[in-house]
Amino acid sequence: MTNVLILGAAGHIARHAEADLLKNSQAHLTYFLRNAGRLTITDASRETRIEGDVTDANALSAAMAGIDIVYANLSGRNIEQLAQDVVTAMDHNQVKRLIWISTLGIYDEVPGAYGRWNHQMLDGGYLETYGAAATVIENSDLDYTIIRPAWLTNHDEVDYETTQKGEAFKGTEVSRKSIGALVSHLVTHPDKAVRGSLGVNKPNTDGPKPAWY
Ligand SMILES: NC(=O)c1ccc[n+]([C@@H]2O[C@H](COP(=O)([O-])OP(=O)(O)OC[C@H]3O[C@@H](n4cnc5c(N)ncnc54)[C@H](OP(=O)(O)O)[C@@H]3O)[C@@H](O)[C@H]2O)c1
């Protein structure tokens, strides 16, 4: 049985990934989050809940014991430091496989008018820090997969395609449910996209900005 540690387990994408994993895998899920009471355990044989903050090195390291795969669904202005904290704890516990949620645009890979709009919206702190966090991950010797979602929707659909690092980003949007499904797929196929960085979008959503803007 695969043991998965989910950091930021009450996050929006994380909740989709957890539902997908409970339904479509045999994995044991350890939820690591602040205010742990927000998450309800539905199957005590497969789910463990730990209250903790990723910046608490001792708590994070303790949570890694016996873990096969770390899925980090984190956010915040300190995302670069969070990346470093995760890498350090994984190295210390000899855990190799990491799935890391990032964002589109960190390599300046979004072409054309949408790329310019994305810069306008996300420059000034966000893109830079998310890029720096991805660099921390890529400079580690972990078996990572970085996921770069397009602008997120809450549509109840799984419909996505991916691009590789070095390719132009496609499309403008993708559902959180799709990203959760991709995370679940990578957990159940851990040999896929190792040391890869995937852009993820809903097909046929090209345009100068997401449809709702
Ligand atoms: N919005 C978009 O269109 C878009 C597009 C591409 C990528 N993204 C990025 O995708 C990522 C995931 O998205 P999402 O919708 O799932 O975000 P989310 O709901 O905000 O989830 C992020 C989680 O990170 C947790 N977190 C932050 N710092 C933490 C810490 N020190 N210790 C423990 N937990 C911590 C937060 O916990 P608390 O609940 O306790 O605060 C939150 O639950 C985010 O980084 C987001 O910026 C967003």
The gist of it:
It is built from six helices and ten strands, in the order E-H-E-E-H-E-H-E-H-H-E-E-E-E-H-E.
* Arithmetic mean of pLDDT: 98
Strand neighbour order, sheet with most strands: 3-2-1-4-5-6-10-8
The proportion of strand residues reads 15-25%
Number of helices: 6
Query: CATH superfamily assignment?
Result: NAD(P)-binding Rossmann-like Domain
Number of domains: 1
Q: Under the CATH scheme, which architecture would be assigned?
A: 3-Layer(aba) Sandwich
User: Structural class from helices and strands?
Assistant: alpha/beta
Helix content: 25-40%
Low-pLDDT segments: none
| H and E string | EHEEHEHEHHEEEEHE
Question: Can you walk me through this structure?
Answer:
The structure is a single chain. With 213 residues, this protein is an alpha/beta fold. It has a single domain, classed as Rossmann fold. The protein has six helices and ten strands, in the order βαββαβαβααββββαβ. The protein has helices at residues 12-24, 57-63, 79-93, 112-122, 126-138, 176-188, and strands spanning 3-7, 28-33, 47-51, 69-72, 97-101, 143-149, 151-153, 161-163, 173-175, 196-201. The strands form two sheets. An eight-stranded mixed β-sheet has the order 3-2-1-4-5-6-10-8, with helices on both faces. It is globular, with a radius of gyration of 16 Å. It starts with a strand and ends in a 12-residue tail after the last strand. The relative contact order is 0.17. The mean pLDDT is 98. NADP nicotinamide-adenine-dinucleotide phosphate is lined by residues 8, 10-14, 33-35, 53-55, 73-76, 82, 101, 103-104, 149, 151-152, 176.
